[in-house]
Give the backbone structure.
Amino acid sequence: MKSKRLSFVIVCVCNRLNENRVRDAIVSGACCSEDVYARCGVRKNCGQCQETIEEMLDQNPAAQAVAA
Ligand code: FES
């Protein structure tokens, strides 16, 4: 059985979003950072996390296919 990698590294300090929540939003179909925020039930505040979220989106082939 393949175990899910858990990470509690905070990606978005303003909204207390950890890496797992962001990754779950991406896997469930988020195609841009605004979509990630929406799927997590939050709004972008300072925007410091946006670049990191976009990098995570770039690393996810499913998100790239949706965005194309
Ligand atoms: S760190 Fe994400 S909006 Fe501020």
